[in-house]
From TrEMBL:
The gene is yhbY. Residues 1-96 form the CRM domain. InterPro entries: RNA-binding_CRM, RNA-binding_domain, RNA-binding_YhbY, YhbY-like_sf. Pfam families: CRS1_YhbY. Signal peptide: none annotated. It comes from the Bacteria. PROSITE patterns: CRM. NCBIfam families: RNA_bind_YhbY. Keywords: RNA-binding. This is Ribosome assembly RNA-binding protein YhbY. SMART domains: CRS1_YhbY.
């Protein structure tokens, strides 16, 4: 679990990122979870946009994504979901204790 301090640090780093995935009408599926997992391994911190036409609400989508990818949900703000997962190979982000 992330502490409040760690989440603040991740939010400030995520601020400059552009969303690299979009969840639309089809909602969350296996293929999307696989791709997001790979992106998390490469980048550790990613943003995902939940589109207007998505049938699930953004909190449901955020939950499904964080569970499916075993990542930490940093925040849901507007239609943007921010996920963090420590990388095994490419560790870039050093979090405060």
């Amino acid at each position: 679990m992330l502490t409040g301090k760690q989440k603040r640090e991740l939010r400030s780093q995520a601020h400059h990122l552009n969303p690299i995935f979009q969840v639309g009408k089809g909602g969350v599926n296996e293929n999307m979870i696989k791709q997001i997992s790979e992106a998390l391994e490469a980048r550790e911190l990613i943003k995902i946009t939940v589109l207007q036409n998505c049938e699930d609400d953004k909190d449901t989508v955020a939950g499904q994504l964080s569970k499916g990818t075993k990542a930490e949900l940093v925040q849901v703000i507007g239609n943007i979901v921010v996920l963090y997962k420590e990388s095994k190979e490419n560790k870039k982000i050093n979090l405060p204790k």
